[in-house]
Amino acid sequence: MCLVLIAYKTHPDFPLVIAANRDEFYRRPASPAAFWPDHPHILGGRDLLRGGTWLAVDRQGRLAAVTNYREPAVQNQNQSLKSRGLLVTDYLFSKDTAQDYLDDLAERVREYDGFNLFAGDAVAFFFYGSYLNRSVQLQPGIHGISNGDLDYPWPKVTRGKQALQALVADSASPAAESLFAILQDRSVPADTELPDTGMGLQMERMLAPVFVTGIDYGTRSSTVLIVNHNGRVDFAERSFGPGGELQNTVEFEFQIDSRMETQRHGRHGNKAEGI
After folding, report:
1. How many Å apart are CA 87 and CA 101, to the nearest integer?
2. Is 122 helix (H, G, I), strand (E, B) or coil?
3. Strand pairing class (134-137; 273-274)
4. Domain ranges in the chain?
5. Does the reported pTM lie above 0.85?
6. Which string of b and e fits 231-245 if b means at least 16 CB within 10 Å?
7. Which CATH number, 1.10.260.40, 3.90.78.10, 3.30.70.360, 3.60.60.10, labels domain 3-264?
8. 20 to 30 Å CA-CA from 95: which of 4, 42, 206, 244?
């Protein structure tokens, strides 16, 4: 996934709104979002190559999302390392609070290529970047990330955050269709706005739009997740093929099961910094 946009505690009735695009090679096999037969409390898509997922939520309202961290000096992935998608599943399989899980992750961060990870729920939401090697608790506001630092102004991050800010500010109820519209932005920024991540100008141009449409690589899925103040979760995903052709749409709605919730205070207390 190469873009995650988050409106966290900015709307009085919707404490958590997420809009995210997953960019990947079209040939990499994946299944669309569903409740998993082997873990029926978890909802999300699945990577069928190495396991894991890019974004998932469980019936407690715990969720996680991951993006790669683009490191120009690291051109070839080390296949002996664990899949970054397992960061999401490992958190949701555990009974740890998000803060505890991320604190423990700091001790084994080198087991993965560079990544950005969000974990938590509508009450407390955290970010962990492998380049930081520490967790930070998100503060209320509009946040965004692609394959760089949190809230770093890459064009797609800036455009996405501005659009999400306007939607949340002007809407009594953020609609999935409006969030999908943000994620469909295919406009290409000017060359002067592009980041220089060591990929070359042509590749930077191809990767720069919110919605990527390359020949072999592009936006494979768009996901929107809306949590309201009563604990209802609305989840929708659209899957795409080469050229951005829509292939599949799924929608889910469920009520957070408060009986399953873990305690809000973790093993180590409240240590995370705010951001």
Report:
1. 10
2. coil
3. parallel
4. 3-264
5. yes
6. bebbbbbbbbeeeee
7. 3.60.60.10
8. 4
